[in-house]
Amino acid sequence: MVCSGLEVRLTEGKKKEKSPRFLSGLKRREKRHSRSLSGSLSFDRNAELIETFRTQMQISEPMDALTRRKLVRLASEKSFGQIDVPQITLGLLNGTTKSEFLNEKSYIQWKNRQANILEELLSAEKSVGVFLAKIRNFEEWDIKMSPSKCREVLFSIRNIASTLSSMPGNCGVKGETYYWSAGYPFNMRLYEKLLLGVFDILEDGKLIEEADEILKLIKSTWPLLGITQKLHDVLYGWVLFQQFVGTEEAMLLEYAVRKVRNIPSSEDVVQNEKKYLESLVCVNDCSGSEIRLNLVQSILWSIGLWCDNKLQDYHWHFFQKPSLFKGVLSMALAAGNQKFDASGNMELMLNASNEIIDSKVRMYVERSAEAACQRVTDAINTGSKVDKKHLLALLASELKSIAERQLTVYHPVLRHWCAESGVLSASKLHRFYGERLEPFLKNISCLSEDVKQVLAAAILLENCLIELHSSEQVEKGVHSPLMFDFEREIGEIARPIILDWVIAQHARILEWTGRAADLEDWEPLSHQQKQAASAVEVFRIIEETVDQFFELRLPVDITHLQALLSIIFHTLDAYLQKVVNQLVDKHNLYPPAPPLTRYKETAFPSAKKKLVESVVLDNVVNKKLGALTTSKLCVRMNTLQYMQKKISSLEDGIRESWSAVRVFKDQTRPDEDSHWTSNGILEMCSESVDELFVATFDCIRDSAADAIKRTCALVGARVVFWDMREPFIFNLYHGDVEGARLETILPQFDRVLNNVCALIDETLRDIVVKSIFMASLEGYAWVLLDGGPSRAFSDFDVVMMEDDLNILKDLFVADGEGLPQSLVEEEGRFAHQILSLFSLRAESVIQLLMTSSEHSSIGLEAHKYGHRHLGDAHTLIRVLCHKKEREASKFLKRHYHLPPSSVYDETAAEDASMKSPLMADLIKRSASFRWSDKSSSSFRSLKKKIQDATSDFRQVGW
Hints:
Blueprint: H1 23-26, H2 43-56, H3 61-77, H4 85-93, H5 104-121, H6 128-136, H7 138-144, H8 147-165, H9 178-182, H10 184-195, H11 211-218, H12 222-225, H13 229-247, H14 250-261, H15 271-279, E1 281-286, E2 289-294, H16 295-311, H17 314-317, H18 325-334, E3 337-340, E4 346-349, H19 354-383, H20 391-414, H21 421-442, H22 449-469, H23 471-476, H24 486-518, H25 533-551, H26 558-581, H27 619-627, H28 630-668, H29 686-723, H30 725-730, H31 746-759, H32 765-786, H33 795-813, H34 821-827, H35 829-839, H36 842-850, H37 864-867, H38 873-882, H39 886-896, H40 906-915, H41 918-926, H42 936-950
Antiparallel strand pairs: 1-2, 3-4
């Protein structure tokens, strides 16, 4: 720099820093504002840049000061023509002694380095070796030889150097010297070292802020070192590239690619420079053979060789840093295409044609796919004992990962240079796996665990390969013909064995379901989960089977779906049947109607007989009733409601999973009619699938709804006619109304309702409370009509009974928090109508009885509350039996010969009720006659039939 005209300030007077000699240069420099450079740099800025560059080159301050002194003195002599490296080296050696260095070792290393430089540059003259030997000999040069003798030696070497430097260049390039060609290896290494100074010594992957300015300073060395623009570009690109290789900094790779792309082709270089560049010969090793290349070719060949090595297995080398893939590929293509002729000479083709680039990228894709396949095969074979999966399933999974990465990471880059990169990669992977899958497919006989793993993995792999194969065509809006056939082969093999597998699940699931139902104790899972554990277990088994079915990920058709839904239907239906079969008819809980008696005022107050409390039930019904407590019935209802919810979610899940299967099949056969599979089986259309789902799940829903309805009715009957039969059915109005009012049992009624509401699911509360209300109205009607000899009601009593009925209704309305008022009023209308009959005079009721044949066409079995209605004979006779009125008693005695309540005998009545159910026959017979005011013969005939019908039990206490 000094000899090229730049002023360099001497540094002897500079204040030494206390920190180590390099630390000041290692400290971070604050970012400076960029300065525009016009013409030559200012002296101060030059000084800053040279100081920065010294730090970057890691030259100590003492050595820097020494070098500056020598160079300034050399420049002042003006005794040379054109400056060259030997003259600079000799200038540095002239007069330098060991006292100028920190220690003897540093001096010897420095001196030998100068001798080595001279030896390399002046090797053409053998005589120079004698002089250099003296310089290297420390004892001779620094101890024995006098300073004048040393100067003579250096002068002799300078003469040799001057003679060589005066020789013309070989290539005729402007400014060329002898040392451009003769000393080029040293010159190029030295220039590389200078270029490395632009990299931050704290972070090798970063350029310093002053990099551009430093490069302009370095450019002053071009005439000295024989550097041309092309050489600079290729050397700077080479340095950037080497720095990238060491740091993997993407920015450096980007800069290197730009520099390499700037290298002009051979046609763009003038003839003399072309000759000069070709004279800079390097010897390279290529597969054990030596090839001779010029410097530019050698650097580009080395870069291309490194890139080829990485790109021929890019799946491996760019797995951790895929972001570098594009840059390395760009560098490989920018480095050109090398061709060797028959003589072994390499021809470097920059700006290669599209065909050549396409061929090169194809080679990368194919070789990388081959390398990836071989690598995963070796890894799987090595680790097969650790993983329990089948080798082919593992291989398919690994190849799928490769294909996915190819599709998402590499193909978007590769397709810019090779549109068919996806097709090439997919074909390679498909062929590699297909060769190993084919023998396995031939030996499949059942759906074993290995078969499920391998077939599912193969289908997933093929799906991914098809997507990769068609990626470029999809982007262009066209479809390439598909050459993949895994699914077709697997489908033909898998369809029958999948069906066998589904059928095999049937017996297993039914067995587990039956066992869960048999072991159920109908206790809630928890306070929050009020359903039974067996239902949860049943749906767990079903969902597990459904998951296994869809996790097969194999080709399926409507037959498989039908088989799966059939299993679900039979499983849930069997469970529901077990639940329903454990119920009893609610009428088993109703007390039998006591024998008919007529009220007798003189005898009734002293009547102390009891009512018949219950019918005699068989052992089966008794056993069932023992397990059908109110709490367990509530859990059953919760369980049925839970099933309703789970059925809907199960259906939605299967529909969604099936939809995914359909999408998968449609994507694999985009060019085929979507209604047909590859082997001609008709694909299910949406209507067929909907019909299957409706036939399965709607039927189960209906069955569950019926079971809920039956259980709900049983809950109401159980609460009223079983849990509260003593206080409500048997004691309400027992003896007299005023002493046995409804209000005495309201606390117990309220407690029972609270317990039920706490047990039942919130969504079922209203229908269960309604069922209890309906049962309580039935019970109330039973008390009024079938209450037996201990109950008789006067007109005064009816007023209190009306109040009690209103109280009962208010209990269930619960100040607007219970049942709707309109519903309560509607359902309570019949009880009010019965009370209205008791408000009538006996003559009016008798008249209604005589005209009851007008209602026979309605039919007794069509009415609620024990199949009664206000106009039938049964209801009217019961009203007359319970009325505290002489005319009613006289009518019943005269026309029906009913005994008074005072002579009612419990045992005899019980026997009569068990042996002779003739009252029902009496009522049925009475309904077959028509009575009218104009024909008393009809009434006499009916009376005779009633008397005949009651003759066999008239003597047993009636």
